[in-house]
Amino acid sequence: PVDLARALPRPPGRGVALRRDRKRNASREAPRRHRRRRRSGPSNKYRWLGPHGVLLDSLMPEFDASRIEHRVIDGPTADVYEAVVRSDFLDAVRRSRTVRGLFALRAAGERIAAAARRSPPVNPPELAALRLADLPEHGDWVRLGEDSPNEFAFGAVGRFWGGETTWEQIDSSAFTSFETPGYAKIVADLSLRAYGHHRTLLSYEARTQTTDAAARRAFLHYWTLVAPGVGVVMRSALAVIAQEARVGLPKQQL
Question: DSSP labels for 138-171?
Fold first, then answer.
């Protein structure tokens, strides 16, 4: 049988027009595909280069997970910043029954995991207070940068999934270059912006970046479970700062 579609002559220029249309459509689609590829990246990391958070973006522009909470606090930016650095972050645990319950649940899970491994549980050291103003430049949680009265950044390196939490002793100067496989780096950042004449918008962001693919898989599985609880703890810390800032306000602003 004769294939009439092949036998009949093709209208002149039709093939050229079709090819031209395909190229035009491809050029329209290519930027969208390129943008999607850049956003996800080969390592499935996020990237944020916003107008604020200069310290945070320089310390960890790419990350595997992030949590951010905000609170508007009475008082000018300089006064709220002083409340940020002098607040005792352990009060976020002491003053919240929910946060205490979350930490108790985590400790119970680590004890069960230690028993399954037939190893003694790792008990974190007891701290009397935890203030940003007292953070060292060498230790587990270290001061990473400060831009008074706009931003304060601190961080840590460790393993905190799989039923065991261990923190590395690091120098703040070596934080960004740390790449030992099997770990995750955390940067926590508090940034402040004027919000009207007598109030401040305080933003608390925590970013986590892992050092290899295996740690990333393990961490992201863990993060799926704990991310809501992390938000509760961060909001409790913001409430502590708001209370500290309120103490220093003149009575006419209360």
Answer: EESSEEEEEETTTEEEEEEEEE--TT--EE--EE
Residue 77 in tokens: 């930016």
Residue 69 near residue 238 (C-beta atoms within 8 A): yes
Cis peptide before 149 (omega within 30 of 0): yes
pTM summary value? 0.77
Regions in the chain scoring below 50 on pLDDT: 2-5, 7-8, 14, 16-18, 26-51
Answer yes or no: are the C-beta atoms of 211 and 205 closer than 8 Å.
no
Residue with tokens 């409340």: 83
Place of tokens 């996020």: 46
Closest C-alpha among 202, 198, 185, 102 to residue 144: 185
**Torsion over CA: 44, 49, 50, 52 (sign):** positive
Could you read off the pLDDT of 5-61 as tens digits, one per residue? Answer: 454 455 555 454 445 555 555 444 444 433 333 333 333 344 443 445 579 999 999
